[in-house]
Task: inverse folding
């Protein structure tokens, strides 16, 4: 709830407090202009807010007199920094955003923001796809597209001093290949799982077992503690780090054993996990492309194979919709071949019986 009072004093018109932050908020021709000043408990926030308010009112007077500020030309790096400051740094996936912006800034360094075209974005895609998978390039392109979108909106809403932008969002003009075209289908077979469990160190064995019994992502497994256990419902409960969506997973007897043998509040020990996992893959003869996240897909695919309906599997995996689950547990080629064998076994017709009837003269 917003208020015009801070520390028992009434704030000047144009300044207000909302959720512990001091904001500058003005209107020009029905369009709201808002900018964060800083935390309301900052001793210098009010004075800083008054200075910002005076500067914004000066700009508004210039605009009303027809002395519109000319958009200034800036480099891509500065545009990325503005986007980070006003938006990207405040989202739940800020770490990923920061990495993608760093990569984008490196590629487009020295280029003016308004001069970048779809041809530059296509060149970026070609270069990045030499090093990373198309789905990851999609994520970087999405970040660039969001950056241009927000900068354009902030220009129109007067959130920032006007900057020069291209007439169209260059990142939105380049088609991104659909992730279904390169979806992973790798699953770990029961034999491979046994090899992993037999060769793994005790802490890694616990992690692998937890991954297939809960289908949780590695970031959520790392955060699992006894606080996630609801004994009344016999479930693990918490929030997915990636999506923020709640997860509830029944505790089976195997996972109950992991809980009972956990030496500390944290259920799993990830110390040295990265090197241990790489060494384990090599020792078990698994293909180098095998990833730990394949265990989550293995859990989902196994539940489907054993007759669990798609909606239940989707709920277990914590997906937002069934389409996401269908894409995630796409059938590998081995399962498709098995489908052909199933059809052959059920719908049999002997070749002799199917031979064409001899045509009589």
Result:
């Amino acid at each position: 709830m917003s208020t015009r009072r801070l520390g028992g004093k009434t704030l000047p018109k144009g300044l207000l407090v909302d959720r512990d932050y001091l904001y500058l908020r003005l209107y020009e021709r029905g369009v709201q202009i808002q900018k964060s000043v800083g935390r309301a408990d900052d001793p210098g926030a009010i004075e800083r807010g008054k200075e910002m308010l005076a500067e914004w009112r000066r700009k508004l007077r210039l605009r009303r007199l027809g002395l519109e500020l000319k958009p200034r030309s800036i480099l891509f790096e500065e545009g990325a920094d503005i986007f980070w400051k006003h938006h990207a740094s405040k989202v739940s996936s800020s770490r990923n955003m920061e990495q993608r912006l760093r990569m984008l800034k490196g590629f487009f360094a020295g280029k003016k923001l308004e001069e970048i075209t779809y041809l530059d974005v296509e060149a970026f895609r070609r270069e990045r796809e030499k090093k990373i998978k198309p789905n990851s390039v999609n994520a970087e392109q999405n970040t660039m597209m969001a950056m241009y979108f927000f900068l354009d909106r902030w220009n129109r809403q007067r959130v920032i001093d006007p900057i020069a932008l291209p007439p169209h969002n260059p990142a939105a003009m380049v088609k991104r290949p659909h992730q279904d075209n390169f979806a992973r289908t790798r699953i770990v077979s029961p034999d491979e799982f046994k090899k992993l469990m037999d060769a793994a160190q005790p802490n890694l064995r616990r992690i692998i077992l937890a991954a297939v019994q809960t289908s949780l992502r590695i970031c959520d497994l790392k955060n699992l503690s006894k606080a996630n256990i609801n004994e009344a419902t016999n479930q693990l409960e918490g929030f997915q780090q990636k999506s923020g969506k709640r997860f509830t997973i029944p505790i089976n007897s195997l996972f109950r054993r992991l809980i009972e043998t956990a030496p500390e509040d944290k259920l799993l020990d990830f110390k040295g996990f990265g090197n241990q996992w790489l060494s384990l893959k090599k020792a078990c003869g698994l293909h180098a492309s095998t990833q730990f996240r394949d265990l989550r897909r293995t859990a989902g695919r196994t539940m489907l194979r054993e007759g669990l309906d798609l909606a239940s599997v989707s709920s277990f995996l914590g997906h937002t919709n069934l389409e996401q689950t269908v894409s995630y547990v796409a059938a590998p080629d081995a399962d498709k071949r098995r489908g052909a064998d199933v059809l052959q076994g059920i719908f049999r017709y002997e070749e002799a019986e199917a031979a064409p009837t001899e045509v009589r003269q």
The chain has three domains: 2-64, 76-182, 190-342. Strands lie at 2-3, 5-6, 9-10, 15-18, 21-28, 31-39, 229-230, 235-239, 246-250. The two ends are 94 Å apart (CA to CA). The CA atoms of residues 303 and 312 lie 9 Å apart.
